[in-house]
Amino acid sequence: MNPAPLRTLARVVPAAVLLLAVTAACTDDAPSSSASEPASPQASSAPATTSPGRTTAMNIRLTINGHRISATLNDSPTARDFAAQLPLTLPLRDFHQAEKIADLPRKLSTSGAPEGADPEVGDLAYYAPWNQLATYYRDAPYAAGLAPLGHMADGGAEQLATADEITIEAAP
Asked: Are 19 and 26 contacting, i.e. CB atoms less than 8 angstroms apart?
């Protein structure tokens, strides 16, 4: 079986989901704050709710080499379980000169997670077989057992390449 269509699908589906979530949030009847106003702090590490029964991705903050990097977790059971562990400060190890990995305090739920993923630069993912957070500073091939968690903002991958520790917390 040719894995190229699966890789393409693995890249397109998260983007489509994000587009749908952003579109839904933009068309919500609730009033929104202006771009110059700071977001209100989250009372917990649960995803933000736009209306009853509908959730959006959760904003988080990474601290890498003293630099604060914005990131967003997707709205999956695995990402929500990861968010429940925040805040975390984890030592990082380089893996294949493409990613930094860290052991997590406990296993995450993989309910509904894909069988694997094809990560891109800036992605945050959970590697279930080893119970590890995987953060990508270079492109890497498809990996079975990899569940996408989210993506960091531009500039995060460059900081990550030389990092030996990462702090992850809910964004204020």
From this structure: no
107 vs 104: CA distance, rounded Å: 7
**What average pLDDT does the structure give for the chain?**
78
**pTM score over 0.70:** no
The pLDDT-based confidence of 149 (bands split at 50, 70, 90) is very high
At 14, list the tokens.
């998260």
The DSSP line for the chain is: --SHHHHHHHHHHHHHHHHHHHHHHHT-SS----TTSPPPPPSSSSPPEEETTEE-PEEEEEEETTEEEEEEE-SSHHHHHHHTT-SEEEE-EEETTTEEEEE-SSPPP-TT--SEE---TTEEEEEGGGTEEEEESS----EETEEEEEEEPTTHHHHHTT-SEEEEEE--
Residues 10-20 have a mean pLDDT of 46
Contact predicate 56/50, CB 8 Å: yes
Is the separation of the CB atoms in 22 and 130 below 8 Å? no
**Residue 63 pLDDT greater than 50, yes or no:** yes
Name residue, tokens 């030592």: 91
pLDDT class for 133, splitting at 50, 70, 90? very high
